[in-house]
């Protein structure tokens, strides 16, 4: 029997109530949002619940939404895969302007480098991470280059325009 999205939603709402919401299909992937305060429990439930069986963390990424309100400035997006049923799921948790969320490295070892990358480029602090430090940028770097307030190019260049990349122009 195939794993139906309705069944996944029922199991999640039964377990977490109003802390999981906005269930929808996005480009053929069942997606929903969860409160950041319970994200570890949600991911653990998706992995360990025998009927759900999402045992593979495909991806973990951060996103910066500078135009959103203060409580939704950042999002951490988790993509999980159930290999048995060949079902994918996406979980999104929004964070405020000082992004802090629990680590899931105890659930998925592969989350280690993914969380370090999100920290390195967006400044997301993963509480409980065993070694949260920069992974690609220099340790001395104080900014987080994929935040949208970080200019993409040298302000003196005329061949690139940040407006074409969804960023506002930064005056240097």
Automatic annotation (TrEMBL):
One CC-aspect GO term: plasma membrane
GO molecular function, one term: NADH dehydrogenase (ubiquinone) activity
Membrane topology annotation: Peripheral membrane protein
Localisation: Cell membrane
Reaction catalysed by this enzyme: a quinone + NADH + 5 H(+)(in) = a quinol + NAD(+) + 4 H(+)(out)
Domain NADH:ubiquinone oxidoreductase 30kDa subunit: residue ranges: 35-153
Cell membrane recorded as keyword: yes
Entry's EC annotation: 7.1.1.-
Keywords from the named record: Cell membrane, Membrane, NAD, Quinone, Translocase, Transport
Superkingdom, taxonomy of origin: Bacteria
PROSITE patterns: COMPLEX1_30K (PS00542)
Family statement drawn from the similarity comment of this UniProt entry: Belongs to the complex I 30 kDa subunit family.
Function noted in UniProt: NDH-1 shuttles electrons from NADH, via FMN and iron-sulfur (Fe-S) centers, to quinones in the respiratory chain. The immediate electron acceptor for the enzyme in this species is believed to be a menaquinone. Couples the redox reaction to proton translocation (for every two electrons transferred, four hydrogen ions are translocated across the cytoplasmic membrane), and thus conserves the redox energy in a proton gradient.
Assembly information from the UniProt record: NDH-1 is composed of 14 different subunits. Subunits NuoB, C, D, E, F, and G constitute the peripheral sector of the complex.
HAMAP family hit by this protein: NDH1_NuoC
Protein name: NADH-quinone oxidoreductase subunit C
The organism of origin for this protein: Flavobacterium stagni
Taxon lineage: Bacteria, Pseudomonadati, Bacteroidota, Flavobacteriia, Flavobacteriales
Gene: nuoC
